């Protein structure tokens, strides 16, 4: 049974194997903007805003409706009339009006002539679309930021793997040296065993780093909306620091600020819509219809069956004047004003946070650049120390502990340099974000 399951797994794996796709940062971002759910939902919000504008615009356009009904009156209502009408003075006579069956069909046209709420709603709907357009832009920027961070982390994992592979090669050389000395009686067996243990530990660590590379690649594929089973390959480049030109942040141009300003605009339109409840409304109403009455169903019957049809029409103007609603409109206006004031506070707080983020990003970028320079020097120094220690060990001037320590120091220096470079690239992303220049990131790549 186990062999059968393994066979099915291998067969399925080969059946769905796909050629690796090479991704640079531009391609990864483009793929994410096209396939990621957040980007698609933002585009749908814009389309929904178009539909909302059309819905509000319909309130200002002519409205045409039609209705028809047939009614059976088993008991006709009687009205009491004075007998003088029928030549019977002094008596009241009950007379039933109408027929047992009535049918009517009516078409009605309504046209808004003045309604401040409708006009305000039209302007607010256009602002709503602009709000969703800005929101879509902000969503794209957030996607770019997340993809860039995930992309650089893949490079970090790959660089860690290269560092480990380099360290593994050095340890293999150490094992060969110690083995040669041991076979010639110039080293102890315990020294040879210790180097083998160190080599085996590195081999085990290599598998862990391989898993880390796979996890970081899967995280990147998730960030861009790519199937997890699709293999990817990043172009062989380094992510050495590139000094960015200082760009003074223009907070008014930041998408977040534009979005909050547009939200303020929408809240003001909402307040105006509430105020518009004080205004009267005026509408033109016109209708035309047919009425059929008889002792049988009027449909399909004429005067020969006792059914009589007549048409009717009316044209009028409806004026509605709000007088008093218990202060509900006044309360809504106050609520709208409070929301506006809260949004203004959010705007000022956001601007302050952006200034802080920019200052922190600049400081972090400068610090990381200094750290990279220090770690580069440290790697060269650690390499020289290791080479000298290795030579001294061969000459019997250094202990095995010294050589293994120098080897570990070199590996740690390389990893520290890799981490410093990653921190720099992540700080670079934050600086571009704080300056509203994230889109330029894909042009500079790595």
Automatic annotation (TrEMBL):
Keywords: Cell outer membrane, Coiled coil, Membrane, Signal, Transmembrane, Transmembrane beta strand, Transport
Chief location of this protein within or outside the cell: membrane
Keyword Coiled coil appears in the UniProt entry: yes
Keyword Coiled coil: yes
InterPro entries (alphabetical): OMP_efflux, TolC-like
Subcellular location: Cell outer membrane
Single GO cellular component term: efflux pump complex
Coiled coil: 32-59, 154-181, 333-430
Protein name according to UniProt: TolC family protein
Origin species: Salinimicrobium profundisediminis
